[in-house]
Amino acid sequence: MGRSQNVGQTMTKGYFLAKCMLLVAAISAASCGGGGSGSSATAPMPPLAMLSPPGAPLVRVSGLSPYPASCGGAATGSVNYEDAEVEPYVAVNPANPSNVIGVWQQDRWSDGGAHGLVIGRSLDGGKTWSEQAINLSVCGGGNNSNGGNYPRASDPWVTFSPDGTAYVISISFSTASMTAGSLSSVLVSRSADGGATWSNPTTLILDGASAFNDKETITADPNNSNYVYAVWDRLDTGGHGPAYFARSTDGGQSWQTAVPIYDPGVNNQTIGNEIVGLPDGSIVDVFEEIDSTSANTSTGNIRVMRSTDHGTTWSAPITVAQDLSVGTDDPNTGNPVRDGGFLPQIAAGAGKLAVVWQDSRFSGGVRDGIALSQSSDDGQTWSTPVEINSVPAVEAFTPSVAIMADGTIGVSYFDFRNNTSNPGQLITDYWFTSSTDGVNWSEQHISGPFDLDLAPDAGGLFLGDYQALAVIGQAFVPFFVQTNNQGTANRTDSFVLPPQPVPLTLTRRVTNAARPAPDSLQLDAAARAHIHEQVQRFLRAEIPGWERIQAQRLKTSPP
């Protein structure tokens, strides 16, 4: 391991200039030295053979897999995408902003999880990286005493305490879920030296066949290094999916017993729980509540709960907005893209909260755009959602959000504005947009074009159902996965755009204004049915063995 990869060292100036000319209407100052643009007019895309990996200033973080191809074992019919990285997250050390840690799934399986998680570590603000496996699965070196006998790991997340202590969290599990002999756990590993070494994992919860733990996140309190918070959803055979919470009050030396903090009731569940800390010491958990999971009228609502005592007690849920995502499909073939639908992302900073998600309300249920809602009273009330992606005529998906110290909101996302009618490739780009007022937005290009058709198929073309956006000083730092445009031998890698001489936020030219939703959300029956279908598709892809679990729930649930 220990291999640093700067893509700019392998790119020719000729290709980079050609790419800039091709995307002259959209490339940002960070990519080619020009201003951002909201125009959807682009030159014709080159054939697939001409597409190359991203060039400088992007940095490739991940290398080849450190795991043997045979580790972990496979279920019947499952496919392993060796060397494929997906679902990245990143954190910046507040005690030393040059220290950045990223984490991702390594060697994704088609039916859930990966061989393990891999850590990327930078000591120069993201310019160069080393990587190492971490013992949160069998492939990562885990065993019954230090990580359990878990063939797979998923949903990586990383956080830093104010004193520089880092924490990585994982769901680690057996291939099947909620079957005889199955295991499902939430594990946390701690580093006191900036990510150079990691502790044996602490098990926050361990279930057998009666429950499956999913979509966990970890957040260090930004004001007090003693407190660290973990939150996730726990599905059980009785049809419940409450939000579970565990915390450390001694800087990760020990963890209190995990407890449920909100149960929406039978045949309902939470998912996508994520905590942020506020300057007054309170914390806010955002989550998706999915109701009627076993009926034909599934619905989603984005909600938050607040705690003013470090998670000892919690408020009743507060609704941010309905979630009307219809998901993403290849516009040429109809093949599904597994995106960030029904997984809201939250950020806190400068006295405000911002939540972003995919939503079809702006198109009357036709396609998803990027929705944003804000709160200026610590999450007690929320603004009407607005659409912030600059090209509303194409699908936009998987947003990430961060807030700078001066209150600037930054959001990154994917879209298909440069796609062509060629059914043999799905041309995708990664974008960044920022605003100081939540109304006027300035968009810039991060990366692309790349061919999403090369991504692993895990319930749809899959780069991860979240990506990451961090802040270093006065720069937003996207940390993300994309395909390599090099065929199927090395489908994806993790990339970062470290702080640039001309940061993403410096170009303030407005490219679009936020668009409010129509006054009425009375979507027609077809749109409502599409939303229900997307909820079911999301859960089927997210939870191993979803159909079997649902069948079991229906047998045990009251009529």
Brief descriptors of the model:
five-stranded antiparallel beta sheet; globular; 4 helices; 559 residues; mainly beta; 34 strands; Neuraminidase
According to CATH, the fold-level topology is Neuraminidase
Number of helices: 4
CATH classification, class level: Mainly Beta
Which spans of ≥5 residues are poorly predicted at pLDDT below 50?
A: 1-46
Residue share in helix: under 10%
What is the beta-strand fraction? 35-45%
Q: What is the topology, as strand order, of the major beta sheet?
A: 12-15-16-17-18
Mean pLDDT: 87
Describe the sheet with the most strands. 5 strands, mixed
CATH architecture type: 6 Propeller
Based on the structure, what is the oligomeric state of the protein chains? Answer: single chain
What is the alpha-carbon Rg in Å? 22 Å
Q: Write down the overall geometry.
A: globular
Number of strands: 34
**Classification by helices and strands:** mainly beta
Q: Roughly how many Å apart are the termini?
A: 55 Å
Whole-number count of domains: 1
Structure description:
The chain is mainly β and 559 residues long. The chain has one domain: Neuraminidase (6 Propeller), CATH 2.120.10. 8% of the residues lie in helices and 40% in strands. The protein has four helices and 34 strands. The chain has helices at residues 13-22, 29-32, 525-542, 546-556, and strands at 59-60, 80-92, 100-109, 114-122, 130-133, 152-160, 166-173, 184-191, 202-207, 211-220, 228-236, 240-241, 243-248, 259-262, 268-277, 283-291, 299-307, 318-323, 328-329, 336-338, 345-349, 352-359, 369-375, 386-387, 396-403, 409-415, 427-435, 440-451, 461-462, 468-472, 475-483, 492-496, 512-513, 515-516. Strands 12-15-16-17-18 form a five-stranded mixed beta sheet. The protein has a five-stranded antiparallel beta sheet with strand order 21-22-23-24-34, with no helix packed on it. Strands 25-26-27-28-33 form a five-stranded antiparallel beta sheet. It is globular, with a radius of gyration of 22 Å.
